[in-house]
Amino acid sequence: MDARSPLGEFLQARRAQVSPEEVGLPRYGDRRRVPGLRREELAMLAGVSAGYYTRIEQGQSPGASPEVLDAIATALRLTTPEREHLHVLSVTAGHRSGPSAPPAEECARDLRTLLSAMTDVPALVIGRRNDVLAWNRAGHALLAGHLDHAAPDDPATRPNMSRLVFLDAHTRALYRNWPAKARAVAGNLRVMTARHQGDASLAGLIGELAIESPEFATLWAGHVVAPCGRDVFDLAHPVIGDLTVTQQSLRVPDEPGQSLITITAEPGSPSAAALATLS
Fold it and tell me: Which of 19, 26, 206, 210 is deepest in the core (most CB within 10 A)?
């Protein structure tokens, strides 16, 4: 396994983002062959031999102990999500396989019933690639009113939220702080690719976005890690105007890779009144 494995790429990218000065190491001269930390410097900070760390980065020592991974994560100043991402990559490093056709994704009937019952809350169900598997009327009206409401019903026409954020002008204009939204989407895709290595359709989406969107290509090269959870966004909706919403992502227990996305506003706020008009 070479240094271009997902684990090796992630560690190399993060080494490049940490300067010796940030971690209290002296810089001897200005002519360094690599940006950021050298492998030997990171190994010293993590308390392991340079040879052992090199084998980890090159994917030749899969299954490194949690203690060693935590030491490397601490040396690299990784956030909690980034630390978890490192552990996932280490577990999957020794089990790589060629691209495979993923199973088809569908929204369960009970989940569709729940979406329909959430008349006052914009909501949607997304799959492992961020494909929209289903949405209620409020969710459709808030996020993609310019698309056909029935589009998610047919796999051939399903909207993809990642593609919309980076390649669709209407969606880009919806987010007042588009760079923050773009970073969140790219970071979540990074998490999903670690969990679903070998998914050919997911790899195809990444390739498409990297070619079509320079912003995505930059974020992807930086190995941004940002699992979906709770985010607050300011929207500029073409019909109901400006509003601030909270987006929450809830995993679907029986369908790994699927999430229920809900969007709410502070009760009694102008944003909540604006959302109410979508119902």
Answer: 206
Output DSSP code: residue 226: -
- pTM score of the predicted model: 0.85
- Report the C-alpha gap between 69 and 19 in whole angstroms: 20
What lies within 8 Å, CB to CB, of 214 at 6+ separation is none
130, 162 Cβ separation under 8 angstroms:
yes
Q: Among residues 63, 93, 123, which one ends one of the domains?
A: 93
Residues 142 and 235 in one domain: yes
Q: Which amino acid is at 212?
A: E
Tens digit of each residue's pLDDT (9 = 90 or more) over 44-96? 999 999 899 998 888 776 678 889 999 999 999 999 999 999 988 888 665 55
Burial of residue 52, with CB atoms counted within 10 A of its CB: 0-12 exposed, 13-18 middle, 19 or more buried: middle
Pair of tokens at residue 193: 């690719």
Give me the CATH number covering residue 199: 3.30.450.180
Signed CA dihedral, 46, 50, 52, 56: sign only: positive
Residue 67 lies in a domain: yes
Q: Between the CA of residue 91 and those of 54, 78, 87, 100, 150, what are the distances in Å? A: 17, 18, 6, 19, 39
In a domain, 228, yes or no: yes
